[in-house]
Design goal:
Organism: Cyphellophora attinorum
Order of helices and strands: EHEHEHEHHEH
Pathway: Amino-acid degradation; L-valine degradation
CATH class: Alpha Beta
Catalytic activity: 3-hydroxy-2-methylpropanoate + NAD(+) = 2-methyl-3-oxopropanoate + NADH + H(+)
Distance between the termini: 75 Å
Number of helices: 6
GO molecular function: 3-hydroxyisobutyrate dehydrogenase activity; NADP binding
Helix content: 25-40%
Radius of gyration: 20 Å
Shape: globular
Protein name: 3-hydroxyisobutyrate dehydrogenase
CATH topology: Rossmann fold
CATH superfamily: NAD(P)-binding Rossmann-like Domain
Structural class: alpha/beta
Length: 177
């Protein structure tokens, strides 16, 4: 009879401890608030938006209306700071020019943040915070996404770009016979 070793399930990697959201306007606000409410209690959400009044409104709603711990959600000054501190980063921006600025700004942009080494003291609970997932959710033209893809790929980082179509279903009144 052959001797077999019992199989042990591979432990799951720890969940991300820090999420980042850039752009809390018409679309991003609700999506970011939903993330803030549903991430693990030990996780943190960093937000960034050009409009400080929108940031203040978001933080107040998170704490006052949704009862979130103020330490769980905080604002940062620049997208690059989010990239340095978060494992999962989402953007929801109003137009192509905003996406270009958020990604390409040499001092404060996402690409600038990706090109800087992550500090070892920011690694938490054994999770390698140098591994990033950046999800760009804005509706933008291929003439914007392709140069961003090329710039990020040139850094040795992988990108995944997909064209998609959005369908809206609108209910119609029933026709009576």
């Amino acid at each position: 009879m052959a001797h077999t070793t019992p199989s042990h399930p591979t432990p799951s990697p720890p969940p991300p401890t820090t999420y980042g959201w850039i752009g809390i306007g018409n679309m991003g606000y609700g999506m970011a608030m939903n993330i803030a409410r549903k991430i693990p209690a030990t996780a943190h959400l960093l937000i960034n938006d050009l409009r400080q009044d929108q940031v203040a409104k978001f933080l107040a709603e998170a704490v006052d209306e949704h009862g979130l711990d103020p330490a769980k959600v905080s604002a940062v000054d620049a997208p690059a700071e989010i990239v340095q501190r978060a494992e999962i980063i989402l953007t929801s921006l109003p137009h192509d020019e905003a996406v270009k600025e958020v990604f390409e700004n040499a001092e404060t942009g996402i690409i600038a943040g990706l090109s800087r080494p992550t500090h070892p003291e920011e690694h938490t609970q054994g999770h390698n915070s140098t591994v990033k997932l950046v999800l760009e959710t804005s509706t933008i033209a291929p003439t914007t996404t392709l140069p961003l893809h090329e710039a990020i790929t040139a850094m040795g980082t992988h990108t995944l770009t997909r064209q998609s179509r959005v369908a809206f279903l609108q209910p119609q009144p029933e026709h009576s016979p």
